[in-house]
Write a structure and sequence with these properties.
2 domains, Phosphate acyltransferase, FA_synthesis, 18% strand, 333 residues, EC 2.3.1.274, phospholipid biosynthesis, 11-stranded mixed beta sheet, phospholipid metabolism, alpha/beta, Isopropylmalate Dehydrogenase
Length: 333
């Protein structure tokens, strides 16, 4: 049985939407056990399914918490959710709480995989080829070339789990030429090329991310997060423009009615709730970060993501991939 801890008090819509999403998921997935980590009052007049267990505490982390404080508040719902994974009681954790706080708890409570310096936030992004995985999407701002290589190794394993058999990898840069970027990007380029060979297609620019050119995009957390948020903004802009244009006259309205199935499919594809949550990869258990404003649908899907990560043994596959790379490099030295 897969076992997942969920931080009931994490997120802008906690606890109501978090609990609703968790209970709905539990009802539809009786083979998964959920540990509902929350405050006593969260469960008042709530019927708890048999595959759920309450874990009661008296503290939770606000959305503006500092990461350093998060690891000191050991009675918080987020900390205890991660500790259930560390202690082997749960296989994974889901939280819509503060990103930095969850990264700190994932790193210092759940613990890093040997050979990983920094866990990374890996996000599936819609593309013309289905999707690509962005790593890092905001967890690590100041990184070294070796960190970028590790992000690549981990993101490739994640992409494989999502269905990409032989993922193509690109390094996000200010140009596609091999000599573009700072010394960090140039060194990371050489390291990625050495490890991934032809699987690494080289540098890519921001306008390549959604074209299907690559399946994995490697970036520092600053550039990755800016790129991801820009894409979200453009998607909202296009959606808004389409809505406004279709209301202008009767011809536009009739055209919109005929195109409604297409618009619905497009909306579903770019809806962040569909993905639900993203992995902090590089830690010993499955840690899924749900969006801060997640509703019950997003939480339901975040739990699906966590369940799949557990079923596919994502941490174990990353551990094996890291060991293979390091062993291969050591044998050549």
């Amino acid at each position: 049985m897969r076992k997942i801890a969920i931080d009931i008090m994490g997120g802008d819509n906690a606890p109501a939407e978090i609990l609703a999403g968790a209970l709905s998921f539990a009802k539809d997935n009786p083979e998964v056990k959920l540990y509902l980590v929350g405050l006593e009052e969260n469960f008042k007049d709530i019927d708890i399914p048999s595959n759920c267990e309450k874990v009661i505490t008296n503290d939770f982390l606000p959305m503006d918490i500092k990461p350093t404080e998060a690891v000191r508040r050991r009675n918080s719902t987020m900390y205890l959710s991660c500790k259930l994974v560390k202690d082997g009681i749960a296989d994974g954790v889901v939280s819509a709480g503060n990103t930095g706080a969850l990264l700190a708890c994932a790193t210092f409570v759940v613990g890093r995989i040997k050979g990983i310096d920094r866990p990374t936030l890996a996000v599936p992004i819609p593309s013309s080829n289905g999707f690509c995985v962005m790593a890092d999407a905001g967890a690590n701002i100041d990184v070294k070339p070796s960190n970028l290589l590790q992000f690549g190794i981990m993101a490739v394993e994640y992409a494989k789990i999502l269905g990409k058999e032989n993922p193509k990898i690109g390094l996000l840069n200010v140009g596609t030429e091999d000599n573009k970027g700072t010394e960090r990007e140039k060194e990371a380029f050489a390291m990625l090329k050495n490890v991934f060979k032809d699987q690494f297609i080289g540098n890519i620019e921001g306008n390549d991310i959604n074209t299907g050119k690559v399946d994995v995009v490697i970036a520092d957390g600053f550039a990755g997060n800016v790129a991801m948020k820009t894409m979200e903004g453009v998607a909202k802009l296009i959606t808004g423009l389409i809505k406004n244009e279709t209301k202008k006259n009767i011809v536009s309205i009739l055209g919109a009615l005929l195109m409604k199935p297409v618009f619905n499919k497009l909306k579903e594809k770019v809806d962040p709730r569909k993905y639900g949550g993203t992995f902090f990869i590089g830690v010993k258990g499955v840690v899924v970060k749900a969006h801060g404003n997640s509703d019950r649908i997003a939480i339901y899907n975040a739990l699906k993501v966590a369940s799949k990560g557990i079923e596919e043994e994502l941490p174990e596959k990353i551990r094996g991939a890291i060991e293979n790379v390091w062993n291969s490099r050591n044998s050549r030295n």
